[in-house]
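User:
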Amino acid sequence: MFPDLGSQYKFIREIGRGGSGIVYLALDLYSGFLVCVKKLLEEHSKNEEFLIKFKSEANIYLMLDHPNIVSLKDFIIKNNSFYLVQEYVEGQNLEEYIQNVTGPIPTEVSIGMLKDIIKAIDYAHNKSIAISGHQGVLHLDIKPANILISKSGNIKIIDYGISQGNNQKRGNQVMGTPLFMAPEQLDIKRQLDRRTDIYALGTLIHVMVTGNKPFKNYKTKDEVLDNILYNQLTRTSELYPGVDYRFQKIIDKATEKNPDDRYQSCHELLAAIEQL
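Assistant: Predicted structure:
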């Protein structure tokens, strides 16, 4: 049974389900456009921590206005249920694109995609807004599944659900997707800043140009975490000999264990990509 949001939205089908909510495809009868409606799961609606995250995600989307970041159309609270209404992107995510279409993405195509992705993340990092008194917004969960590619080839970044302000005080939970997390994300005592997203962008580049996951040798989550803390990403040439060798230098610098040794901003990373 679909949610009842009144006369504006006609629900079509469920298109996704995760740990925090259900996503539906719907038609906005007022505008005539398809939209995604994300509903917070009932068991989380009474959980203050989840509500804070959900409302934070809505507030962040309302403040971000960029062609490569999915836009928020509406935020609805009805019958003690919480909904985000976002633009619908017809296409597939980058993970699906690599698996189903290309495998390793060719150099020139990768460069074009990365320019759009990095510019969007940079926009959020430098947006003149304040989250909990801190300037700019970190994504903190950059990965192929959170990059959408429309049928026309446009890039859209999604899921600012665990984002926070630059250098904002952290909560008491480690959050993110292990394969794409920077070492500092594993220690709740360490602050996160723009360079945390730079690390994730480095792992994203690795996946794009090799068609493989960042680390090859692991069987358990603990082994993934050990790789993040102590090992370099698997060499690109080992995974796919056809990789342009110049990507390896960029990936190595972006994914340095010490944030001080990485690119210090998206602007620096973008400059390196543009020199390829």
